[in-house]
Amino acid sequence: MRDSGKQVRGKLKRERPKLPKVSEEMKAWSAALSAEVAGWPEIRTRTFFGFNALYRGEQIFAVLPRTRAMGTPDSIAFKFESPRARVRKLLETDPRIGSTEMQAARWYTFELSEDAHLRDALEWLGRAYEAAGKRKSRA
Predict the structure, then answer these.
(1) In order of start, what are the domains of the chain with their CATH numbers?
(2) Which of 61, 26, 36 is CA-nearest to residue 46?
(3) 19: part of which helix (H) or strand (E)?
(4) Does the chain have fewer CB atoms within 10 Å around its N or its C terminus?
């Protein structure tokens, strides 16, 4: 798993996530994933900064690229505030997973490089969706 932090004067400083332009292929993959999750209960979407943000109720749990991606040009991102041990192990062992931290929550990226990765991407979105249903609303 890749981490986007770097050492500065002995402290780990978090860099802003890179937002590279996405390929036409990634736009198609993102549209397919968006269409698939659209039927899940309590789903709503919002667009911002080149992304389609996915919410379960009031909780954001993922971003799918429209024109920009987080990390690499062919990646989606999903959020886990504190993943359980089994999910953490999966995150650590999948070489397609990267991570960053924003607003005290851990965001993970999943890099797609072929159509076959759509199923795995959908599984990660499902895990993040389930985790979002267990979080308390900040309202």
Answers:
(1) 2-134 (3.90.1150.30)
(2) 61
(3) none
(4) C
- Neighbour count for residue 81 (Cβ, 10 Å): 12
Q: Does 123 score more than 90 pLDDT?
A: yes
Q: Which of 125, 114, 16 is nearest to 74 (CA)?
A: 114
Start-end of H helices in 8-116 = 24-37, 85-93
Cβ neighbors of 29 (< 8 A, separation 6 or more) are 74, 112, 115, 118, 121
Q: Round to whole Å and give the CA distance between 24 and 21.
A: 10
Residues in Cβ contact with 62 at an 8 Å cutoff, skipping those fewer than 6 apart = 53, 54, 76, 77, 78, 79, 125, 128, 129
